[in-house]
Design brief:
Elements (H helix, E strand, L loop, with lengths): L10 H21 L6 H8 L3 H5 L5 H24 L8 H18 L1 H9 L10 H17 L6 H21 L7 H19 L2
Helix pairs in contact: 1-2, 1-4, 1-6, 4-5, 4-7, 5-8, 5-9, 6-8, 7-8, 8-9
Length: 200
């Protein structure tokens, strides 16, 4: 994966990178990675292609930055919710809150969700692979703290399946889809039942 050319140090540089990534999220969200381009992203951001290249050498670097940006947002969004899980009795309410936050993140990061549909996070070459693995780590730590003793490989498999189920369902039901809210309610029941059966 190509990395960004430089980390923005000045306030104006950080604002420019943020504009580029917001434009990229919109562009990739609407067109997908394959049909997106640095030229189109630069135009959306109100920049020249040369200005974009000062921060990102190519589209791969932008896509990698979208994944990193999503991971930072998701880590912040989920942290206090998973901290509420003192025991497995807390699983239902915490799960409901995590699903609401996942749905809100999907609306703010449409490009990230679109790229996960094009290149599965299960693949190690996917920009989203690191995101999925770190979220599995975070949720596994919370469950261990709540007393779960399920062996680590099994626990990671269970959590990976739950994350992928939610991600895929949200990607298939974007904002405005009337099935979205009922789907979230069904997901909460389904995942809670699955976790109750698999965790010990």
């Amino acid at each position: 994966m190509t990395r960004a050319r430089r980390d923005p140090q000045q306030h104006r540089s950080r604002e420019t990178v943020d504009r580029i990534l917001r434009a990229a999220d919109e562009e990739v969200g609407e067109r997908g990675v394959a049909l997106s381009s640095t030229t189109r992203i630069a135009a959306r951001a109100g920049l020249s292609v040369g200005a974009l290249y000062r921060f990102f050498p190519d589209l791969d670097a932008i896509v990698g930055a979208l994944a990193a940006r999503y991971l930072e947002a998701a880590t912040r969004a989920y942290a206090d919710a998973v901290a509420q899980m003192a025991s497995l009795d807390d699983l239902g309410p915490v799960l409901g809150e995590l699903l609401r936050r996942a749905a809100a993140l999907q609306l703010k990061h449409p490009g990230y969700y679109r790229l996960t549909e094009e290149v599965s996070p299960e693949r190690v070459d996917s920009p989203a692979h690191v995101v999925r693995e770190q979220l599995v780590d975070e949720f596994a730590r919370a469950l261990r703290g709540a007393g779960v003793t399920t062996p680590d490989p099994e626990l990671r498999e269970v959590l990976g399946l739950c994350i992928e189920t939610v991600r895929h369902a949200l990607a298939r039901h974007p904002a405005g889809d009337p099935a979205r809210d009922p789907l979230l309610a069904e997901l909460q029941l389904m995942i809670a039942a699955y976790l109750a059966a698999r965790l010990r």
